[in-house]
Amino acid sequence: PLCHGASELTRAQFRVAHRAFLTAYREASRRYLQGHWLVAFPAGSLRPPVLRPVADIAA
Question: Residues 18-53: pLDDT tens digits?
Fold first, then answer.
């Protein structure tokens, strides 16, 4: 994402932190959607929705 920083160092630090956040979120999301319901997500993120067919819910 775009980032306004006071210096190139600040922008680089943001990019590193953002990439780490995305990596952690993707891994947690993958595990969560595989059924590991208690997996920890990075602070400030939300769990993805678990979409199931209506037939599964009614059973």
Answer: 999 999 999 999 999 999 999 999 999 999 988 777
Sequence-ordered alpha helix ranges (H) in 1-59: 8-33, 54-58
Tell me whether residue 24 is in a domain.
yes
pTM, two decimal places: 0.76
Q: Is residue 1 part of a domain?
A: no
Cα gap 22→45, rounded to integer Å = 10
- Dist CA 24 CA 6 (whole Å): 26
Does residue 46 belong to any structural domain of this protein? yes
Contact 31, 52 (CB under 8 A): no
